């Protein structure tokens, strides 16, 4: 009985010690890094039904390019609780954060945007982050866009936005068919889906002259002018929403079999574009 009581006392003291040190799940709840204003994490947002694993090649391409040595994972629960695995390293000013949505089959872009905001807030609370970059693939782009639609007062400033295979105005086989979606000369879609219409306020609220935008889309070169899931026009509809207010806006088309929708996040040409954009 005495041994059991001592064991419980030891566990209690250990937990008290961890609490006093601000440790949760082996990670500090706040991290006082020197020169915190210099840190500019890049957050990767995966697509619908996917996970952080879809982000691995791009993340490691940045590591291999010497941009960073740090990859942290931000796991977002169905209820929006964000848990960080790993930690920023002192002096490594461009860490990567692989965002992992546990409810990745949720079809609400509003919910994805709220989870994105929760992730940004978590990084601000933990590391006093003041600026950041984002990279989205497929539905991950809607997480970014619906995040930007929310109130961002007192949040870190978005510096660079990379959109890959974005279905901003629909998906082939659901509300579009190959070569059917048309854009007007100013980039406005002739027909707008409800999710796209909900983003129209960004034409007035997207941060003015703050964000550099790189829009990457795929063309399988099979006559469909699409990546197999999203037509080029659907991806290019981003321009109408943000180009007039962005600091800069550019588009890059990837051609060939490797430009298929789910292959774009593992495409070395995409890696090179991403590295060049983030380094400059």
Automatic annotation (TrEMBL):
<keyword id="KW-0732">Signal</keyword>
<dbReference type="GO" id="GO:0016787">
    <property type="term" value="F:hydrolase activity"/>
</dbReference>
<feature type="signal peptide">
    <location>
        <begin position="1"/>
        <end position="20"/>
    </location>
</feature>
<keyword id="KW-0378">Hydrolase</keyword>
<dbReference type="InterPro" id="IPR029058">
    <property type="entry name" value="AB_hydrolase_fold"/>
</dbReference>
<protein>
    <submittedName>
        <fullName>Alpha/beta hydrolase</fullName>
    </submittedName>
</protein>
<dbReference type="Pfam" id="PF06028">
    <property type="entry name" value="DUF915"/>
</dbReference>
<dbReference type="InterPro" id="IPR010315">
    <property type="entry name" value="DUF915_hydro-like"/>
</dbReference>
């Amino acid at each position: 009985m005495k041994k059991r009581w001592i064991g419980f006392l030891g566990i209690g003291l250990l937990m008290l010690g961890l609490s006093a040190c601000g440790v949760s799940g082996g990670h500090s709840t706040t991290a006082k890094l020197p020169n915190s204003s210099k840190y500019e994490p890049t957050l990767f947002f995966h697509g619908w039904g996917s996970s952080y694993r879809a982000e691995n090649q791009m993340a490691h391409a940045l590591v291999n390019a010497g941009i960073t040595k740090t990859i942290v994972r931000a796991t977002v629960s169905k209820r929006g609780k964000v848990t960080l695995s790993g930690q920023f390293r002192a002096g490594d000013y461009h860490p990567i954060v692989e965002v992992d949505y546990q409810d990745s089959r949720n079809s609400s872009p509003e919910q994805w945007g709220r989870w994105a905001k929760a992730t940004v807030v978590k990084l601000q609370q933990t590391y006093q982050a003041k600026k950041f970059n984002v990279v989205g693939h497929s539905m991950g782009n809607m997480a970014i866009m619906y995040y930007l639609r929310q109130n961002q007062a007192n949040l870190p400033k978005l510096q660079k936005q990379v959109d890959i295979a974005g279905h901003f105005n629909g998906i082939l086989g659901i509300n579009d068919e190959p070569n059917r979606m048309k854009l007007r000369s100013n980039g406005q879609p002739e027909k707008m889906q409800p999710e796209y219409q909900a983003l129209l306020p960004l034409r007035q609220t997207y941060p003015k002259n703050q964000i550099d935008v790189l829009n990457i889309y795929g063309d399988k070169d099979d006559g469909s002018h699409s990546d197999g899931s999203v037509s080029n026009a659907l991806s290019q509809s981003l321009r109408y929403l943000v180009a007039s207010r962005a600091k800069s806006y550019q588009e890059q088309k990837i051609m060939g079999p490797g430009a298929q929708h789910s292959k774009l996040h593992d495409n070395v040409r995409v890696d090179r574009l991403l590295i060049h954009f983030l380094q400059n």
